[in-house]
Amino acid sequence: MISIIITAYKEAQSIKKCIDSFLSQNIKENYEIIVLAPDEETLESAGKYKKVITIKDSGKGKPTALNLAFMAAKGSILILTDGDVYAGKNSVNELLEKLKDKKTGAVSGRAISTNPRNTMLGFWSHLLTDRGAHEERKRLSKENKFLACSGYLYAVRKGVIESIPNNSLSDDAVISHIIYKKGYKIDYAEKAEVYVKYPTNLKDWIKQKRRSIGGYVQISKWFPENKGMRTFSKESSHFFKALSYCKNIKEPFYFIILVIFRIYVWLLTIWDLKITKKEFSKIWQRVESTK
Question: Is the pTM of this model over 0.85?
Answer without folding.
Answer: yes
